[in-house]
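Lay summary. Proteins are chains of building blocks that fold into shapes, and those shapes determine what they do. In this project we predict the shape from the chain. Here is one chain we studied, written as its sequence of building blocks.
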Amino acid sequence: MKEDFLNEDEKIQDKLKQKTWNEIRTNDSWAIFKIMSEFVNGYESMARIGPCVSIFGSARTKPEDKYYQLAERIAYKISKAGYGVITGGGPGIMEAGNKGAHRGEGTSVGLNIELPFEQHFNPYIDKDKNLNFDYFFVRKVMFVKYSQGFVVMPGGFGTLDELFEAVTLIQTKKIGKFPIILVGSEFWSGLLDWVKTVMIDKQKNANPEDMNLIKVVDNEDEVVEVLDNFYKKYNLTPNF
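And here is the predicted shape, written in a compact code that computers can read:
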């Protein structure tokens, strides 16, 4: 535990250490090229894959957990409905998503991120569809640009980040509307009650209509029904 604090302190000291203008400029310039390379590689790889649905959720969820098993069934059902599955490529819910897609003989994509803990790619990703990223924001662009819908399982801060990013982009009309499906009313009800009663009704910080962007379901059949109904309503075929 003491070593953890020392390492954290060293990281803070390094982050706040005074650098010369030349050091800052050089580091930032080379970072731009790395960011560009991640975008190019991501675009070229993802554009060949076809219509997919992203599944989000905690990396810490164990295989015996009901939500892991539900995520696997959802991914299987999605793959049988003709969609590929995109996950963050790691363990937990992400593994369950790729496992279900693999079992359903569908496209199974993993967008991995370099992290100091938790993240390592799972074995159910198609070998030619396992992408690695250093930058969270580049990876988030790939999720939004190449997903035909978001299925959001119970998760932590990263899952909430992806959820609210998508809602914000749709709300501000920066991207076209697509289905955002929260799975597990037991898990999500407290957050949604707060959003409605405090953020919207009391503080007026969002429009009541924004709640219509989100659907809450509890099983795999409802997930596919929401996806199919969305595309039928708008007379669309899932496409990039």
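What the prediction tells us: Residues 21-46 form the longest helix (26 residues).
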